Amino acid sequence: MAVRNRGLMLIVCSTLLAVGGLSAAAPYHDEQKQLERMAQAYGLPLHGYGRFGALGLPGGKLIPYTATGKREPNPWAVSDIRGIFRDCYPLTNVRYGLKHRNTDPGRYRNYPLLMAVYGASAAEVRRSLVRVDFCGTMVLFSSRNGAAAALSRVSAEISQDPALLAWVRQLVRRDSQAIGTWNWRTIAGTTNLSAHSFGIAIDILDRSSVKYAYWRHTSGNEQAASFWPRLITHEKIWEPPSGIVACFERHGFIWGGKWYHFDPMHFEYRPEFFPPGSRS
User: Is the pLDDT of residue 173 over 50?
Assistant: First the structure.
C-alpha cells in the first residue's frame, strides 16, 4: 500500500506541474534528471543510469539512486538519491508544506553526501568556514561547494531593497543573536546532525515575537506537537517577509517555512533543488 501511495503522490505532483498549479524547483519524476541535478550541484561523478544509477563520492563510495530494502532509523535521514527528492519543493504557495502532514520538502538529507562535500567532523568543517557579511552582520559559512558565495549573493540582493535591508538590520539592532549560522549539533529529538553543523544553514528569527517559530514548541508533548494544526492556526506561526524568502530561493536556499514540521527561521543551501532557469 505504501508503494502505491507513493506512486500516486508522484502522479499528482507531475500533474500539478503540467497544469501550472505548482512550481517546483527540481524534476521529481525523472530518475536520470535527479541524478544529473545531484552531480551538477555537488560536482560529483555519475555511475550507471536512471534508477540503477549512483552518485560517486571520494574514496569510491557510491550513493545509489534507490537503496533497496534499506531503512534509515532516524527521521529526515535518507540512504539514497530518491529519498532526497521524495517531496516536491515548491517555488510558489509558501503554505504548501504546512497543509500536508509529514510533507517536508527539502528536509531529507543524505549524510554521507554532506560529510563528503562539507566535512565529516566539526574540525574539518571549521577549517572550511569563512566570514560572510550578511547585511552588515558577520557570520560563518562553508566556503565549499559555493555555499558562502551563494549567501553573499543573497545579502547583496537584500541590500538592494531598502525595506528588506531595514528589516534585517532593525532585527539585529534589537537582538544581536537574531542571526545564527554554524553550530555542530544534532537536531532536537533526533541523532541527526543539523544542517548548521556543515556550515550551510542560516537562522533569522525575531525572538521578541509571540508567534511560534518551530513546530515542537506548539506543545510540551512531542506527539501532540506532531499534530500541531489541532493546536494552532497558520496565522500563529512566525515567518520573515516573503521578499526575504524569495531572495534566498533565487540563490539556491530552501526555506523551512515550507515544511509541515515548520522551521520558518531556517534557510539551507541545497542547490540540487534549483536547476538553471528556476531562480528568476
Answer: yes
